[in-house]
Amino acid sequence: MTFIQEPPRLGNQYRDDALLRSYLERTLPGEVLDEIEPELDAMGALAGGELYEMQLADRRAEPLLTQWDAWGNRVDAIEHTPLWRRAEELAARHGLVAIPYERKHGTDSRVHQMALVYLFTPSTDIYSCPLAMSDGAARTLVASGNRKLTDRALPRLTSREPEHFWTSGQWMTETIGGSDVGASETVARKGEDGVWRLYGRKWFTSAASAPMALTLARPEGSGPGGRGLALFYLETRDEEGRLQGISIDRLKDKLGTRKLPTAELTLDGTPAEPVWGLSDGVRHITPMLNITRLWNGVSSVAAMRRGVALAEDYAARREAFGARLAEQPLHQDTLAGLRAELAGAFLLTFEVVERVGWAEGEEPAGGEDELLRVLTPIMKLVTAKQAVAVASEVLEAFGGAGYVEDTGLPALLRDAQVLPIWEGTTNVLALETLRALEACGGLEPLERLADAWLEPGERVGLAGLARLARSALGQASSRYGEARAAGREALETEARRLAMTVGRALELALLVRHAAWCHERGADPAIRDAAHRFAAAGVSRLHARRSAAEAPPAPVPVAESN
Ligand code: MFK
Q1: Measured by CB atoms within 10 angstroms of the end CB, which terminus of the chain is less buried, N or C?
Q2: What's the mean pLDDT in 497-516?
């Protein structure tokens, strides 16, 4: 009989996650954790059981666009996969969008929501995308103060009844691209009936089948750039269920996230309502961007956690060269490196989750918004890159099996690759970080924050790691100052390395804080190793300074070089 390898298996994804559990224990009041733990346990069971099994069985299913019916009518209907239909029902029932608006646990409601999302996401084939946009739309409508639209859409977006629940699209990207949104070409015209109608092409609309969307368009006669755009609310179908001046031209043929029906749309007279005046559309859509960037971070750490959980389980089952992989030092070392990256990314993401919860509170702490403005892009960009690197290494931990489609593993890498791209690429967010640093007066507020996180580490023998985190932040701060003094070009050239260095230094500082807390309570001892391991992989991403002697030679004048 030939050898047959056992596949990796997943258990209850809440119970098996020591980091999530110790984090929740540290951050939530005991009575809140007691109250939400049964929900987390149920979601952990679904994620490692029914949903994961469906995901494997559903591997080949993709959404289907039918543009015409048999009788020649244009219908443009998108059929979702079976797992997506189940995910929609579960998302509504578990309140994955509703929780931070119900605010049952006050400022802790964001942590409650995102802990559930973290468990739900890796087993539901990117259904988190429409949920992220729905959360972003709800937050934007609340921020706009538009009572009429909020009263109409918020009860739907936050409904726990699947039949009543709506998801929302976020239609921003046009043929000009998804980064320079201020250049959008969609036009809004007000008819004699007083109704605004939109005309243009939306080029990368995830969740095209959502019943509503927030989108940008330039009211006729408005000026250029983001200021000349307005934020519009629209409902995709009329009362008879017909699309309202929208054609779905095709679904994108993407590298990954293939279960997500991302579409190209033409808007030809789509009725829409201004949400927040007739200008400053880019500024007005930023609450949505900040929420979807938060979901991006949670999706990044959730993807890392899934990869690590599968690789760890497999290492305990797989024997090669006479021993299980889990007992072989080099494989152990590789997995330890992945766990460390996951832990750093997790703590930074959930730090931002907590702060979003505080900012949504009735009385946000002073200065919180400015800190969030700088922490959000840093968190998004650094965790997304970590997710791709971890996914790649996870596939390798399975050898050839990681490269074979019907193990379900290659999708981990393909799906991770979207995380640094959408919701602001690494470079776009690095530049956004510069703007946010300017607004909060440079790196000092972040250095003070990290100091407070690192302080308990010194009590429990982690002073060396604390020094390393402080030194990386100090280097970033001086490099920021030098580049700023050297001018715009020098500053922009350094932006990505600065943001990455700050992100990793903050992750290390958070690892030290969490390791100190765990150490004092005898909880989750692995986190201390993760902190050391993370530091050993390097924190600073700054290039060494060039000495004057290494400066490039002066350019040769054209006449001499000929
Ligand atoms: C699982 C999770 C999945 C999520 C799924 C979602 C799928 C959807 C797919 C997509 O839509 S992908 C496309 C995503 N595109 C982006 O995220 C946009 C990326 N580009 C940027 O972020 C640019 O920096 C930006 C468009 C904002 C630049 O445009 P502008 O016109 O040059 O804007 P500017 O001047 O920087 O900012 C305009 C105003 O907004 C300023 O305020 P003032 O008007 O008061 O001066 C800024 O301060 C403010 N602002 C900009 N970014 C902000 C912000 N305010 C708060 N937070 C921010 N992040």
Answers
A1: N
A2: 98
- String of DSSP letters for 64-104: EEEEE-TTS-EEEEEEPPHHHHHHHHHHHHTTTTTHHHH-T
Estimate to the nearest angstrom the gap between the alpha carbon of 498 and the chain centroid. Answer: 20
CA distance 159 to 139: 15
DSSP state at residue 231: E
Given a cut of 90, whether residue 155 has pLDDT beyond it is yes
Atom of ligand 1 nearest to the CA of 296: 2
User: Which tens digit of pLDDT belongs to each residue from 361-376?
Assistant: 865 555 668 899 999 9
Provide the 3-class DSSP secondary structure of residue 368.
Answer: helix
Per-residue pLDDT tens over the stretch 517-526: 999 998 888 9
Q: How many CB atoms lie within 10 A of CB 453?
A: 21
CA angle 445, 446, 447 (to 5 degrees): 90
Sequence-distant (≥ 6) Cβ neighbours of residue 210 within 8 angstroms: 130, 133, 134, 166, 167, 168, 169, 236
Q: Which residues line ligand 1 (CB under 6 A)?
A: 128-129, 132-133, 170, 172-173, 178-179, 181-182, 206, 225-226, 280, 282-283, 286, 289-290, 292, 295-296, 299, 373, 422-424, 428, 432
Task: With beta carbons less than 8 A apart as the criterion, state whether 154 and 142 touch.
Answer: yes
Distance 469 CA to ligand 1 centre (A): 29
Beta-carbon count within 10 A of 557 CB: 8
- Which atom of ligand 1 is found nearest the CA of 298? 1
Tell how far the Cα of 55 is from the centroid of ligand 1, in angstroms.
33
The pair of structure tokens assigned to 316 is 């305990």
State the Cα–Cα distance between residues 481 and 440, nearest whole angstrom: 14
- Whose C-alpha lies nearest to ligand 1, atom 9? 422
Residues 124-139 have pLDDT tens digits of: 999 999 999 999 999 9
H helices of 97-127, where? 99-102, 109-120
